[in-house]
Amino acid sequence: MLTVDFIGAGNVATRMATGLHRSGVKVRHIASRSTESARTLAGATKATAVPIDSIGRGASMVIVAVNDDAIRTILDMAQPQDNDTVWVHTSGSVGMDVFDPVKFPRHGVFYPLQTMSRGLDVDWSRVPLFTEGSSAETESMIADTARLLTPRVTHLSSDKRRQLHAAAVIGCNMAVYLWSLSETVMREAGLDFEMMRPLLEVTLERTRSLPPTEAMTGPARRGDLHTIEGHMRSLPPQIAGVYGFLSWEILKIYHPELTDRIYEQN
């Protein structure tokens, strides 16, 4: 029977451990720097909360689901007892080489492309999960475990995964930052950001049938410099700077002749 231990009891660990538990995997042990969080997750998965140095003894796999900056520290603290145990981390930006191959002869990566929170369940069937292993045998075992959560499992090297993670930050985190700027502008105009939601939903829906470069709309896409200038005059300086930079980058893609003309005029 597949048995899994977890180091970490935060958002990713919670959603991953509960998902594997529902799939019939025996989640044995949970270790976390927060004893309370470890006990809570252990209770939800019928596991046992234990110290970090007790993790991995006799387990098929240990999943290290902690913040990127903490992975190396956690691995230094770990005391693996069984060379057959596969150790993986869940980071998109940390390479597989964070594992000492002598201390962890079987190791790899188990990276879900999804944002997670303890308060919201995850539909794992829709989540792409990217794997990497220190050997073909280890890779196969990691991928088989991933398929217990989702059919969307893909091997990806550390370098490619780092690019993927950067793309996710651009497409999600930075997009949310732009939504926050939009919310600020609307609030100052006495409007509720909820009014923007139908537009955001339709915009996302357009990317289901069109690549983003074709789904793009708006004044910069049209080359409408008059509208862009009017918008920038109406915005607070910081937001106007972001608006102007992004508009310029969009113009360079769709209307390079306009950016050339602006350069000549200046």
Could you please describe the fold and organization of this structure?
This protein is α/β, with parallel strands linked by helices. It folds into 2 domains: 3-156, NAD(P)-binding Rossmann-like Domain (Rossmann fold, 3-Layer(aba) Sandwich), CATH 3.40.50; 162-265, ProC-like, C-terminal domain (N-(1-d-carboxylethyl)-l-norvaline Dehydrogenase, domain 2), CATH 1.10.1040. Helix content is 49%, strand content 13%. It has helices at 11-22, 35-45, 71-77, 136-146, 158-188, 197-209, 212-215, 219-222, 225-234, 237-254, 256-265; strands at 3-7, 26-31, 48-49, 61-64, 86-89, 107-112, 129-133, 153-155. It has an 8-stranded mixed sheet with strand order 3-2-1-4-5-6-7-8, with helices on one face. Helix 9 packs antiparallel against helix 10. It is elongated, with a radius of gyration of 23 Å. The termini are far apart.
Gap from first CA to last CA = 70 Å
Question: From the 3D coordinates, which CATH architecture of the largest domain would you assign?
Answer: 3-Layer(aba) Sandwich
Strand content: 5-15%
The third-level CATH topology of the largest domain is Rossmann fold
The first-level CATH class of the largest domain is given as: Alpha Beta
Spatial order of the strands forming the largest sheet: 3-2-1-4-5-6-7-8
Alpha plus pi helix count? 11
Structural class, by secondary structure, is alpha/beta
Q: What is the CATH H-level superfamily of the largest domain?
A: NAD(P)-binding Rossmann-like Domain
Helix content bin: 40-55%
What is the helix/strand order?
A: EHEHEEHEEEHEHHHHHHH
Rg of Cα set: 23 Å
Task: Give the overall form.
Answer: elongated
Number of domains: 2
